[in-house]
Amino acid sequence: MASLTPLAFAALGLLAEGPAHPYEMFQTMTHRRDGRNVKVRPGTLYHQVGRLVELGLAEVVGTDREGNRPERTTYAITESGWTVLHDGLVGMLADPADEYPVFHLALAEVENLPLAEAVDALDRRVHALERQRDEADEILDVVRGKDLPERYWLDVSYVRAMLTAQIEWLRATTERLRNGAVPWTDPVLPDTTTSSKEHTR
Q: Which of 82, 106, 174, 191 has the fewest CB within 10 Å, making it most exposed?
């Protein structure tokens, strides 16, 4: 079985809730702000649903037309789709994946920045993460107001917890950088003027 893209897997999860047509799925994903987890675009979603059908994970269960609007095809998850969804979820939950966040790479190379620039960049990251946490709080307020069971928004509470942990670590680390607790030697940049003159000789 071919591996699924994150968007295809999310679409399979939506079809597990009940038959739907791609535009309806797109509206639902937009309303739920699923863009936090996968890149959601209408054309790509239509393509991924078609891919699910090719793989036998979804099937056409009907078509309908409203007025002069284009005909809409409704899809449903198949038994094979349920199996793939189940096994995929268990695997993703249980097995840590090899991921390569760019921030980890940046931290590994941060000594190549002057201290002041490193601290300033980390401060700006804190502010950006705080805005993301505010957005997570807004989403939590909405879902709690709808009395949705917590199992439907565990991802949001997880994201908020991870954002809080990152913010706390960054604040503590930038404070240690500012007070000299982390020894730092600013990089010596090459003399590009000298290098240029030597190159022209």
A: 191
